[in-house]
Model the fold of this input.
Amino acid sequence: MKERSEDNVLDRALGEDIDPGELIEKLDALVTALSDVAARVGPGSATDALLERVCVRTVETISGADMAGVTLLSESGVPRTAASTNKAVLDVDFEQYVSGEGPCLEAARTRSVVRATVADSELRWPTFTANLRGAGVQSFLSAPIWIYDRHAGALNIYSLGAHGFSEVDALILRVYTTSIEGLLRVSKEIEFAKHEIAGLNTAMKSRATIEQAKGILMAIHGFGSERAFDVLVKESQRKQQKLHVIAEEIVERAKATG
Done:
C-alpha cells in the first residue's frame, strides 16, 4: 500500500539532523501564523482575502521564502492564482499554467508536498524550467490544499536562493496547510450561510411586498386573493419583469395617490 505523502515528509524530516532550538522557533512561528489566520475567520471574512493573509504569513513563517501564492483548480482542472504576495508570483504561476507542469500543479494534482530547485527540475518540468530562466526563482516548495473534494489547490513558496527548502520546511508547511484547510472550510460555510440568510431576507421582503400589492388590488377592484395574484403574474409576464418588481410598482403608486 502506498504511504501517504505527509507520512513520507515526516519520516524524511525526522531523519534530518535538526537543531532543536531551530525546530522550536519554526513551530512557534507556525503557531503564531495559524492563530493570526484563525482570528480572521468570521462573518466578514472572504475566502480570497483569507488566502492573501495565508500567503503573507507563510513567507513570514518559512525561512528562505521570498514570496508565496495559492493556486486553485476549477472543477474542470483549470488553474488560477487566487492569492499572492506580489506580482512575481503571478509570472511564475503563469509559466506553470501555460506549460501544464510545475511544482504547484503537481502538488494540487497529486495531493503531495513538492520540493525542488531549478537545478534539479530541468528533467522533471523541462518546459516550465526553460521558460522560467531569468525570473530569478531558484527554489520551490508546494503543499496541497483541499477545501472540498472539487476545490483543489496548492500553497506555493518560491525563493530567489538556490538553497532548496529542507524537509523540516516541508513538514512545517504540510502541518500549516492541513490546519488552514479546516479554517477555509469554516470560512466557506460562513460565506454560504451569509448568502443563504441574505437570500431568505430578500425572499421575505419580496413576499411581503407581493402580499401588500395583492391587498391593494383586492381593495381597489374587489378581486379575490387568487384573482389578484393572477393579475400580478400576467403583468409580470407582459412587462417581462420579476413579480416583486411589479408588486413594488403597485405599492409605490398606491402610496403616491394615497
Observations:
- The chain has a mean pLDDT of 79.
- The radius of gyration is 27 Å.
